[in-house]
């Protein structure tokens, strides 16, 4: 499975038509390609968290929507992108995540598409629990100790 799938291209085109550049970047960062999210898309999203006119809840909701996909690749990339924004994005992003009761409800995630999907499902469930805990600890402490220089 190499290159973007037709589904990925159609989704990116839909976001382009609706004028949501942030949603398009999220879609491009979370494609079905078995590789990490591209740096240019992550950098764009980090820059977007620093802009005052960007809707952070909409950005987060687009990431949560991508995390409901049945493919472990898309879900994993959504988690990686969210984690990257929590660490490197504007603090408004993690503040919004901390204000939500639940982020990722992936405790029952299982990709049945193949043996690799079964293997990665365990890791995805663990990674989503980690991100949920990270947001919860930020809510409790109002501080992210990982961001301290």
TrEMBL record:
UniProt-annotated location(s): Cell membrane; Membrane, Coated pit
Major localization class: membrane
GO biological process terms on file: clathrin coat assembly; clathrin-dependent endocytosis; regulation of receptor-mediated endocytosis; synaptic vesicle budding from presynaptic endocytic zone membrane
Recorded superkingdom: Eukaryota
Domain ENTH: 14-145
GO cellular component, one term: clathrin-coated pit
A GO term for molecular function: clathrin heavy chain binding
Keyword line: Cell membrane, Coated pit, Membrane, Phosphoprotein
SMART domains according to UniProt: ENTH
Gene3D superfamilies: 1.25.40.90
Family: Belongs to the PICALM/SNAP91 family.
Name of the protein this chain belongs to: SNAP91 isoform 18
Originating organism: Pongo abelii (Sumatran orangutan)
